[in-house]
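ok here's Lipopolysaccharide biosynthesis protein:
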Amino acid sequence: MPRSRRKPSRSAPRCGRWRRTCRRAPSSTGAWQTGHGWHTERMRRVLPGPASPAWVAAETLGSAVTALVGLLFVARIIGPQAAGTGAIAASVFLTVDFPIAALFGDSLLQRRGLEERHRSSALWATMGAAAVGMLVLWLGAPLIARATGAPVTGMIRAMALLLPFSAAAGMLSALVLKERRYRLLASRVLLCQPLAVGTGVLAALGGAGAWSMAAQQAAATLSVFLLLALRSGWRPQRLFQRAALAELWPVAGPQILALLVFNGRYRIFIVGLGMLVAETVVAVTHIAFRLLDVAMAVVTGAASRLAMPRLAALQNDRAALAEAYGDLAQLQALIGLPIAAGLAITAPRLIEILMGGPWIGAAEPARLVALAAIPGFLVGPAPALWLALGRTRMNLLMQLVAFTLPLVGLLVLRPQDAAAAAICWVLGSLAVPPLQLLVTLRALHRSPAWLAQRLLAPLLGTLVMGVVSAWAARELAAQAAVPALIGTALAGAIAYAAVVAPALGFRWPRALQEA
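and the structure:
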């Protein structure tokens, strides 16, 4: 007799278009999973977890590469004059955008007893600030255009419309970071930045000129907003309480002023420089500074992502806080020192390869700014420490020093070329680290010798790398730019690894082991 077909149990999982019964496969833990679950488990083994520090590295490296490619490709296509005009417009927009997007983010990250009333109230207050920012940019655009002599009114007003989306994205990013969902944060770069770069390049190839930089900014802002709005998992309520904002403001107030000064000091410096020199000089200076800024973002981005939630969680355990800070300072130096020293050595070749003849004047300014960045990597992630301790006024004080000195330099020296502008800029970079080091060690109740012990490996590695790289660059001076740059970088990297790896016991830095 023919066998009767057994109907699948109602409890059996079904999937697929025709609702077939899924095959089951044993997992590594002995539990049974559906066929789809089996494939999901295999993907989890290949990709790092959502909170893995590997995503921090992917985000910062991806951000550096895409930002550098986008900046250089667009600038090279549209030329120095249009790039200078776009740089002025973007600087004005970002000066207003950055503090609004970060208005309550750090205070939400620092607060331990976070409630829905804090989140929703902070979002609606941020959107109100964005509306005010739009009005300020719209009315101020003609004034900026007259002061700089650049046709930036239309670009500034167009980018002002992005402020609400950027504000919401900044708020959502802070909430995601508080949960240490590094994979979602990395997706902003790995998915959205290539889209933005492609938009800018296509606009430049289409003859948009300086507007290409505005198109790139619009694509980046809108795509990040959509990604976080769909994936963050949080929806605001119709809830606004002044009392909730009052609880956040003691941390948010000084911190947002510090961020405003930090972000605005470069933007205002570029606008001030535009009042003294021609747009081509502004463009060359912008390229030199941005080249370093993109590279340094690898360091500051990684350190900030790891330090801010970790130190905030340890704010009531000062001994553990100090140890975590020491580990993070070592990690920051391990990444930052070789990058800064390497850029100082290879800047002329790098500019020659990436930008060509019209931009060669950016080489020396880039070298000066790279050298001046080295002391900052010896202090550690001090801004995250002051945020964790709720002493955000210290961040404001340090940023005011870094903000004031370059502007004083502009007024006194009145530079006429990019190299002189770089000298003005590094005044702030050199003045802040000694002050930051003094107050940070006092807050941690640690000695300079304690920090020096943590930094010994990166310091020795960078010293040896610098000697080897400088020798290689001199030996390869007669070679073409690309092989000379590759040879110099390879020699330096091998020398650095040969010193640092044994100094760390052939292990990952502790900051990554404990993440």
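+1. Residues 130 and 163 are 6 Å apart (CA to CA).
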